[in-house]
Amino acid sequence: MNSSNAALERRRRFDELVGVFHQDMYRYAVWLSRDRSIAEDVVQEALLRAWKSLDALREDGAAKHWLLTIVRRENARYFERRRLETVDVDDLTPSQEALLAETQDGKLDDMREAIYELNDDYREPLVLQVLMGYSTGEIAELMGLKQGAVLTRLHRARLKLRDSMQDEVV
Amino acid sequence: MTTHDEEMMNCEEFEQAIAADPSFDGGAAHLLQCSSCKAFRAEMRALDQDIGNALRIDVPKLQIPDLPELDSGNVVAMTGRRFSTPTWFAMAATVLVAAVLGVRMFGSSVAYPSLAEEVIAHLDHEQFSLRVSDKPVSDSKLATVVPADVAQMNHSAGLITYARSCTINGNTVPHLVIQGERGPVTILLLPDEKISDAIPLHGENINGVILPVGSGSIAIIGTGDERLEEIEERVVNSVMWST
């Protein structure tokens, strides 16, 4: 394969992988950062980094985990650079508000807000499990935690969400 | 799926298992005689439906950024700037990435080329730490940054003039700076980053290494002309992992 064909093949592989996993990357970034605008920046940076490092991905079957890992690192870098403080739900920027924009479904809105207010330590494993379909072992690996810690966080996250939703009903 | 001895499972264990993973399908024997846990399982499964619906936000149309053309070996885009610019650390990444390709972490099948890259990027972000100083950080500050449950560290490494808790690969790690013969030397204690072999970090104005130390590793990076061998020995001997 000459260099031109190799470059085309590389680009084709990249487009295919990104096409499949872009939604996951974006949603993961949104729920990590709790901000649509930041998530878009993080995903753009992650795509660039993935492009530059594509040759390190040996099996396309591992692409989802690889891409989410890059998103996670880019999100950490973003907040490391900006030193952003966590914000109260009553004091949101427009792009944060966009995440909590009301829909026709009040229950959905309440749940979204409850997830938004979850501590990062609880929200991330929940997103990985419910949205990304990760096992607790895979979550532990990605987050650098012991599996027991992941189980505890997931358990507490759900009980907090249940309590929040019950409070809304009351 | 978590396996569990059903005969040993009580209500508390069952509820913990279900709340951690509502798809948990163990505990059948317990469910037969416990309507409360059966109701709890139904509640958690319904809750998970709502959580999933809430998490599935709308996604904007994919916009792929301008992708640079990459020639062979140029895995990380580099510029032609001089090493004297503030980003000289980042320029070493070309060498580094090639050196660490194939390093496998966490026992996963995925190759992570970026421990060295992550270290370099972090130093680039925290250049203000690289100051010549004779003012040591306080013991209390050092104890906060290097907590006892992470590592025990004595003062034999050298004069520690900077200490901060930082994030590398998602883990909070101690970032220290000691004063070498030629200038500041960065030390990153990486108790969760197990590597099998030392990873050299070389460039015209960078001289460093990530050393395997027990179940973790330690990154030591100085300026290009720093003699690190002695520093490496002192640093490694000054640190003992707590886990």
Q: Biggest sheet of chain A, open or closed, and with what strands and sense?
A: none
Largest interface: A-B, 62 and 53 residues
For the record, what is the CATH homologous superfamily label of the largest domain in chain A?
Answer: RNA polymerase sigma factor, region 2, helix turn helix motif
Q: Beta fraction of the residues of chain B? A: 15-25%
CATH topology of the largest domain in chain A: Rna Polymerase Sigma Factor, Chain: A
Architecture of the largest domain in chain A in CATH? Orthogonal Bundle
Whole-angstrom Rg of chain B: 24 Å
How would a crystallographer describe the biggest sheet of chain B? 6 strands, antiparallel
* Class of secondary structure makeup of chain B: alpha+beta
Percent of residues in helices of chain A comes to over 70%
Distance between the termini of chain B: 28 Å
Shape category of chain A: globular
Total number of strands of chain B: 8
Helix and strand element order of chain B: HHHHHHHEEEEEEEHE
Main CATH class of the largest domain in chain A = Mainly Alpha
* Number of domains as seen in the coordinates of chain B: 2
What can you see in these coordinates?
The complex is a heterodimer of chains A (170) and B (243). Chain A is mainly alpha-helical and 170 residues long. Chain A has two domains: 1-87 and 95-99, Rna Polymerase Sigma Factor, Chain: A; 102-170, Orthogonal Bundle (Arc Repressor Mutant, subunit A). Chain A is 76% helix and 0% strand. In chain A, helix 5 crosses helix 8 (147-169). Chain A is globular, with a radius of gyration of 18 Å. Chain B is an alpha+beta fold and 243 residues long. Chain B folds into two domains: 6-55, no CATH class; 90-241, no CATH class. Chain B contains eight helices and eight strands, in the order αααααααβββββββαβ. Chain B has helices at 11-20, 28-32, 35-55, 88-91, 93-100, 115-125, 139-145, 228-238, and strands spanning 151-153, 160-168, 171-179, 184-190, 199-203, 206-213, 216-222, 239-241. In chain B, the strands form two sheets. In chain B, strands 2-3-4-7-6-5 form a six-stranded antiparallel beta sheet, with helices on both faces. In chain B, strands 1-8 form a two-stranded antiparallel sheet. Chain B is elongated, with a radius of gyration of 24 Å. The two termini of chain B are 28 Å apart. The interface between A and B is large, with 62 and 53 residues.
